[in-house]
Amino acid sequence: MANEVVKKFSEQLSDKLISVESALPKDFNRERFVHNCLAVMNENPQLAKINPAQTIQGLLKGAYLGLDFMKRECYLIPYGTSVQFQTDYKGEVKFIKKYAMRKIKDVYAKVVRKGDEFIEEIVDGRPSISFHPAPFSDEEIIGAFAVVLYQDEGMEYETMSVKDINSVRNNYSKASNSKAWKNSFDQMCIKTVLRRLAKHIETDFESVEAHSAWEDGSGMDFASTPAPINNPEEVIDVFEDVSGVITVEDVKTEGEDDAE
C-alpha cells in the first residue's frame, strides 16, 4: 500500500506537469523534478495532511519558475489545512540571474547592523555604495540593501531601513508572526529588500503562470491586508531544513524497490 500511495502521487504530479508543459521553462527536466519532490516529501510528514491536489498546485509553482524544492530554492509551508508556496533567497537570485532581460554579472543582498559603515553616494553622475561591516557583528539590524551588477558595467541598488522592512511585514506579510520572521529576521530582511530591487529588473517571464508563481512566492499580499493567522506557531519556519509533502516510509520504500 505504501508503494501504491507514492506511485499514485508521482503519476498525478507527472501527468499534471505534462498537461502544463507549455508553461514550464524550456530546459525543465520533468523526471528530475518529480524525483526531487518525492525526496523532499520524505522530510516533512506534516504535508501528508494536506489535500494532494493542493500540494500538487504548490509544487507546480516551483516548476513554473524552474526552482528546486530539494535545493531549498523554494518551499511548501503547511498551516492549517492548506499550504503556502514561498521562494527562498537562493531561488530568487537564481531566477533573476537566469531571466533578467539585461544580462547580470551578480546580484546580492546584505543586512546592515549598528556599527557597520554604509555609504551611498553619486560619483560622476553614477550611483555608488560602499559597505564595510564590522567583523562578526551581532549588533542590532538597522537596515538592508540589495545590489545588481550588470555585465555592461551598470548597477542598481535598493535600500530599506528596518522601519521600512517592518512596515512591509506588518501590513503585507501573509504570516507576519511566523517563526521565519521571529527566528530568521536577517534572512527575511534580505529577501524583502531583494524583492524590492527585483521590481527594477526587467525579467522575461516565460509564461503567465511563472509570473503568478513569482508573485505568490513573495510571502506578501500587496493587493489587500491579509487576515492574521490564528496560530502562527503552526507555520513552519522556511529557513529550517523542512519542505515537501507525503510520508517518510512511503518514499523510502519506493526508492529501495527501484534500486532493486
Account of the protein in words:
It is a single chain. With 260 residues, this protein is an alpha+beta fold. It has two domains: 106 residues; 143 residues, no CATH class. The protein is 41% helix and 20% strand. The chain contains nine helices and seven strands, in the order αααββαβββββααααα. A three-stranded antiparallel beta sheet has the order 3-6-7. The chain has a two-stranded antiparallel ribbon with strand order 1-2. β4 and β5 form a beta hairpin. α1 packs across α2 and α1 crosses α3. The longest helix has 18 residues.
Produce a short descriptive summary.
This protein has helices spanning 2-19, 30-41, 52-65, 89-99, 162-172, 179-183, 185-198, 208-216, 248-259, and strands at 74-79, 82-87, 104-113, 117-123, 126-132, 141-150, 155-161. The chain is α+β, with helices and mostly antiparallel strands and 260 residues long.
Features:
260 residues; alpha+beta; 2 domains; three-stranded antiparallel β-sheet; two-stranded antiparallel sheet; 9 helices
> From N to C, what is the helix and strand string?
HHHEEHEEEEEHHHHH
* Uncertain stretches of 5 or more adjacent residues: 224-260
Tell me the Rg in angstroms: 20 Å
Work out the helicity level: 40-55%
How many DSSP H or I helices? 9
Cross-sheet strand order for the largest sheet: 3-6-7
Number of separate structural domains: 2
Strand content: 15-25%
Overall shape: it is globular
Oligomer state equals single chain
Structural class by helix and strand composition: alpha+beta
The end-to-end span amounts to 18 Å
> Mean pLDDT score, rounded?
83
Number of strands: 7
